[in-house]
Amino acid sequence: MNSTLAQATATAEHLWHTAEVHGRAETVNRGLQRQTFTAALAAPTADTPSSSSLNDLLNGVGTAPGATTVVTVPAAPATGDIALVQNVQTLDSYIATLTALVMYNNHPAPYDLSDPKQAAQFVIDLANARNYVVTGGTVKAIPMYLPMGEASTQTINKSTTSADLHLELLSAMFGALGLPAAVMTELDGILTEVNQSLQSLKLSFETQSQTLNHFVSFYHLVPVEGSNPVINSMRVEFIYLQLNQSSWKAAVGKSSVDHFTLDVTMTRTTATMSAGIVAANASNIVNALMQLTANDPSTISKMTGMKGVKT
C-alpha cells in the first residue's frame, strides 16, 4: 500500500463502522449480516489451507501481478470520502483472500515464481480467480456488496508500438471516465510497474493458445446526483484483460519504434459499492481475515500492492 492510501486509511480509523450512502447512514438488518457472513465462510469446499499457504499466495501478487487494485484518494475529501476509502481496503482485502482460497483449492502445491512457466501460470490463475470471485462465482454475497451492471466485452486488434502501448491500454481502460491528466499519469506509472514486474519474471507459457491475463479493480469517487454539499459514492471498474501471448512477446522483444499487433480482449463490469453494507459487515470480515491469514485489511493491502492515487 503506497503512502497516499496509507495516509487516507490512517485518518479513517474513527470512521470504521460508518459510511455515508446517498447522504445518509445506511442500516442493515442484523439477520442479513449474519446470513451474508455465514454464506461467505461456507463457500470454500476444500480443506481450509494454512495461514502460511494463503499468505504465500497473497505475497505473490506483488511479485507476479495478475491483479491490480487502485483507489482514488481525494486531496480535499468530502463528507464520508475517507470512510469510503477505508471500506474499499476492507472489501478488497476480503476479495483478495477469497481469490487466494480459490487459487489454493485449484492448485494446492506452492508456485515456484522463479520458474518462468510457473510464474506465468500464477499470473494467469490469479487473474482468473479474481474474476471468478468478483463476478460472484464463489461467494454469492459479493453482488450485495457490489451491485453490478451488465458486463461488456471489447476486442482490440490493431498495429501499435511498445512506445504507444501504454497509451492504447490506458485509453481503452480509463478514457471514458474523464479522469484528470494527473491521475492518468499516475495510472501510467502503475502500469509501468506491473509491466516491469512481469518482464522480470521472463514468463514462459505452457501452450501457444494461453493468453496473459490480468484483472484490474479501479475504485473511484463519483458525486451523488443532486447532493449539496457534495456527497460521493464509490464506483468501481472491474476490467478483465486477456492479452494474446504473441502481443506480449512482441511488446517485450521489440524496440520502442517497431510495430506489432496488439490483440487483447477486455471485459468490463461497473459496480457501485454498497458502502453501508460493507461497513456493517466490516468487523465480521476483519475477524474472518484474521482467522484465515492472521492479518488485518491494512496488512493484506500492503501484501497485494493496493495503490492509491490522488485526485
Keywords:
two-stranded antiparallel ribbon, alpha/beta, six-stranded mixed sheet, 11 helices, globular, 8 strands, about 300 residues
Q: Which structural class fits the helix and strand makeup?
A: alpha/beta
From the spread of the alpha carbons, the general shape counts as globular
Domain module count = 1
Low-confidence stretches: 7-46
Q: For the terminal residues, how far apart are their CA atoms? A: 17 Å
What proportion of the residues form beta strands (DSSP E)? Answer: 15-25%
Put simply, the count of helices is 11
Order of helices and strands: HEEHHEHHHEHHEEHEHHE
Q: How are strands sequenced across the largest beta sheet?
A: 4-7-6-5-3-8
| Portion of residues within helices | 40-55%
Note the main sheet. Answer: 6 strands, mixed
Q: Rg, please?
A: 19 Å
Number of strands: 8
Mean pLDDT: 84
